[in-house]
Design a protein that fits this description.
The structure is a single chain. The protein is mostly beta strands. It has a domain at 92-152: Hormone Receptor, Insulin-like Growth Factor Receptor 1, Chain A domain 2. It has no helices and 18 strands. The strands form nine sheets. It has a two-stranded antiparallel sheet with strand order 1-2. A two-stranded antiparallel sheet has the order 3-4.
Length: 152
């Protein structure tokens, strides 16, 4: 069994062996030809810094060469990558316009979608579009009907 102390150029030393490609979570340092640890969450990387990830470990999402856990606000995780949510979503489960779990400020959630203005017969209350409780009301707030439907 070989017990290496150093490697030829282009090979990385890892646990007393020389590798053409360093194992996952390590990168090849070309200054000393050693396999060095990637930043937390990186499966493969080009260096030790947070912004040098090429792919992520399970549960982490890659965005602009950084592995996030969880993905930042307005992004969702799919296939080790952070993807943009549909417009208005703060948190979501996919790119679909009905996959929102919460909305950015001044948007209202209704049936998995975020609205910049709640549909008729609904009003915005704490980030949720709430059905008006007044019969025949087209537009309301929590206390009053503001605009009636035709014929009311």
């Amino acid at each position: 069994m070989y017990h290496c102390l150093s490697c030829l150029p282009n090979f990385g030393l890892y646990e007393n062996s020389c590798y053409d490609t360093c194992p996952n979570t390590y990168y090849k340092n070309i200054t000393n030809w050693q396999c060095m640890p990637c930043f937390t969450g990186c499966s493969t990387c080009s260096g030790p810094n947070e912004y040098q990830c090429n792919s992520c470990l399970l549960g982490f999402g890659l965005l602009n060469n950084i592995c996030y856990y969880p993905c930042p606000s307005t992004y969702y995780l799919a296939l080790f990558t952070c993807h943009t949510c549909f417009t208005g979503c703060k948190t979501c489960t996919s790119q679909s316009n009905t996959s929102c779990l919460s909305c950015i400020p001044n948007y209202g959630l209704l049936n998995g979608s975020c609205y910049s203005q709640c549909p008729d017969t609904y009003f915005l209350n704490n980030g949720i579009c709430v059905l008006c409780s007044f019969i025949g009301c087209k537009s309301c707030n929590i206390n009053n009907c503001l605009v009636c439907m035709p014929d009311y």
